[in-house]
Amino acid sequence: MRLILAIFLPWLQFFTIGRPLAGIFCLILQLTLIGWIPAAIWSVYALSQYKTDKKIEKALAGVK
Question: Is the pLDDT of residue 61 over 90?
């Protein structure tokens, strides 16, 4: 679900992963038609990093 959000509303996806400043910057970028594609790519990349961070946290919590 977040992937669809990252493609169609990239700025909103940043708010769902707890990065509001990036979301505001992404919204400004997305307001231009040319900026929509880089904003979507950036959003998908940030989402993948967020998922990786969550997996690492889960793995480290299991070690302790």
Answer: no
